[in-house]
Amino acid sequence: MVRLASKTLVLGISGSPRKDGNTDVAVKKVLETISRLRDVETVFIRVADFNIKHCRGCRECMRIGECAIKDDDFNLILEKLMKADMIVVGAPVFWSSPPGVMKDFIDRTHGFYTDPKRLLGKKVGIISVAADSGFESHEEILSWMRIYGAEIVGKVRIYAREKGEILQKPEEMAKLERFARLLAENLQ
């Protein structure tokens, strides 16, 4: 029996609590462009659509290699993350950091320290959305991915504040198109 190779999976993660906001639009635009350029499967998720509890700081994860909290949706997102070949993470800037919903997910991966190569081989693109400053939030997400072995392919800064404003800014949409092309070039 011949086993068919599965398509490359590109996972888009929006870390914004605002549904259909600029971050959602940006991540979806990048996924659509990559899909147009390459024969890939794309999946979009919003972290805020899932029930993700805060890290308790119990450090049980360091003993067992995974988060000890089992009564929420964290593992549903983690499963998608682990299956992905490429991950496009978008987050708005809230006081120079990703919003709480994204930070909760990042914190819950603390148990990855027991296997620091957990994301080895995964390619990552980061989208940061802000009104005018605070793009340092890239660094928090970049650090999280690098620590676990992911290859950072690129990052892009998008200027937009009000919901849907990005759609009125052709220069920002063009940046996303170029960014998606860069990511697509890095897919095998």
Structure, explained:
With 188 residues, the protein is α/β, with parallel strands linked by helices. It has a single domain, classed as Rossmann fold (3-Layer(aba) Sandwich), CATH 3.40.50. The chain has helices at 22-37, 60-64, 74-83, 100-108, 137-147, 170-185, and strands at 8-14, 40-46, 86-92, 123-130, 151-159. A five-stranded parallel sheet has the order 2-1-3-4-5, with helices on both faces. Strand 1, helix 1 and strand 2 (40-46) form a beta-alpha-beta unit. Helix 1 crosses helix 6. The protein is globular, with a radius of gyration of 16 Å.
Multimeric organization: single chain
Shape: globular
Q: How many DSSP-defined strands?
A: 5
Mean of residue pLDDT values: 89
Please tell me the CATH architecture by its name.
3-Layer(aba) Sandwich
Order of helices and strands: EHEHHEHEHEH
Strand order of the largest sheet: 2-1-3-4-5
State the major sheet.
Answer: 5 strands, parallel
Residue runs with pLDDT of under 50 for 5 or more positions: none
- State the CATH class: Alpha Beta
Q: Determine the structural class based on helices, strands and strand pairing.
A: alpha/beta
Beta-strand content estimate: 15-25%
Number of domains: 1
Amino- and carboxy-terminal Cα gap? 25 Å
Radius of gyration from the alpha-carbon trace, in angstroms? 16 Å
The helical percent reads 25-40%
What is the count of helical runs?
Answer: 6
CATH level-3 fold name: Rossmann fold
What is the CATH H-level superfamily? Answer: Flavodoxin domain
